[in-house]
Structures
1.
Amino acid sequence: MKTSTFFKMALGVIFALPLWAQDAEIRFVPEPYPLGVVQQGEVKHIILKGANTTAKDIVLESVMSQNAGASGYKYPAVIKANSTVTIEFDLNTAYLEGSFSHVVVLIDTAGKPYTTMVEGEVLTPLFFSEKMFDAGYYKAGETREWTFYVWSSDKKTRPALELASEAKQAFTASYKQVMLKIDKLDDIKEGGKVPALKVTLKTKGIPRQGLAEKQKSLRHIVAFKSPEHPKATPEVLIVGYWK
């Protein structure tokens, strides 16, 4: 389909919308943009197409995202009255997981925002029985230990997993090969048919990462890596409060 033909069709669809649907002034079709199902780590080039439904030009100052992973935005400086607009950017899904809604914000020179959305689902190659752990009230240098299970999305191959280099400074991890029964994710048991790893994560000192002494909340990401899935970003989050 030629671009000019698409623009005519897009304008026809957008201006045929009921008045309540045109209040946004800039309408995109489709809304939200359906990315579909992708594998974690894929980079998708997104092209959003819409139109200025008003009788005035809209001068853009910037286009940004409220979520992680977007880069390389391309957009026009001016969206002419009653004219179409194309916004392009790359979306890196490395840090996305499961169903997501990615909000894109257009901001004009008067500071007025216009929003649209990209929706999709990111499939992760590795599943964690738990991804958030409570350190409680934590004093620097105290020992903590957590145990959880990891298995592959195909449920047939045992995953390869190790701590990322930055995590090794404060953490150690040991791995035991097990077989799991995962019929009920809230009641995972050993002795099933799914090959997995039982991971024991230990620390003798969670780093404060330069945080101000007055900050009491503890939020620390521990990153792993999998040689089999170099684009994936398996991580767990440790939360708590500093003593």
2.
Amino acid sequence: MTTFVLMHGGGMGGWTWKFCREILESKGHKVYTPTFTGFGEREHLISRGAGNETHVLDIVNVLKFEDLSDVVLVAHSYAGTVAPGVVAKAGERVARVIYLDAIIAHAGERIASLMGFASEADAAGLDAMLEAGEGPIGSGVHLQQREMAKTHPHMMDPAREKWLLDHLSDQPMRATSCAIAVGSEAIKLPVDYVAAKHTIMTAMHDRARALGWPVHEHLGDHAFNVGDPEGVCDIILGIVG
């Protein structure tokens, strides 16, 4: 039996793991699906101050208060920037990390500039504005994802895609603009990367290879944990052996 802590991507929440959780639990594994502050069912906590460090502490506290150890930390998309901080603060509780088409940020980088959403100067300026208590609280990522789906539908049943899009929520702008304190290069535990074929994360796949991480390919898109939970869980379980 393995203990999994599944961390969600941008605009999502613990709910996004509904299908993966059912599969893993049916096989006897223990599964936790926490939601970051300001996302999903915790969207009422969105604020200008909720950034990467807040989300690191969200997970560290789950590990602490649930008395978890020997955990497999699974990070999808945005959560790839959270995983290194969790390992830095509570690495003794983590056995290994699995990135699912996730962002690989090095220390000091900002998601906004790393992903090409803004220049480094603009991202830093936005972060300073938020630090001063001004500027946009949310990033509008849920609206952006719904618009993108109109021209680039997800690789899944339309009813399931509707479920996914209907559940999306905003997320704190600070998560996008803040500098990441602990980069992926700092992780000393075993890390595997699962790369989706149809995704905007191809540069992250190259970063995973540059770090020497084993890369496992999946033929789906970035939302493959919802579109093909069976295939994703097969890969995850194959990694943990």
3.
Amino acid sequence: MEKIIYALWAAEGESRESFNTRLLSSLPEALKKTGATRIRLNVRDDTVGPAAPLIQQWQEPQQDAVVQLWLPSSNAMFRGDTDAAIASHCDRFAAWLVAESAIIPNTEHPPVDGQRTWGWSQASFISFHADMPWEKAIAHWHKHHARVAIDTQSNFEYIQNLIVKPLTDDAPGYGAFVEECFPLEAMTDPNVFFDAVGDDAKLQANAKAMADSCEAFIDFHRIDIIPTSQYDFNP
């Protein structure tokens, strides 16, 4: 089995509400018919509107939704029906083959089939420093940054997806896709986000540790970070 990440763009002028309704109402069933399993939709809706100040943008326009799924093979020969189902629900899409690492599986607020997962999900398409050897970037991400992310945040799910290769010709050249889930309050309260409620000194220390670790390997000129609502289908 292989995991694929799809980024979806709505047609120009289409409202987020209309786009999200179409995705959630019919895309999961369409994908299941192609053999896809463990389908997850990340959509940008009014619930995550308060997290707008946390958005970071490279692509113009920026992604409107993310689809994560598993197929027996990501080979284009066998992926055609899945790509067609995605294409029929959006204006355009990009896709990547990834290797998933569940650093913090969601055991606190497990997803329910077809329902919005508790809290909110920060979906991050990131790029590594272009002048940094790939092996060094991965070593920092896996051996140092993962521990920092665990220790300094209120995340109850943390999934690292290392991009193995792009599957579409126009896929932006990211190095990884990261998903982290937080309580809703973390959208607007840094003390909640950085697991430092009632402790401003801890907030400053945790925020600095996270910033220092990110700056060591992430190219902030080539990232897209979007707040989303997470929906799982046949989790």
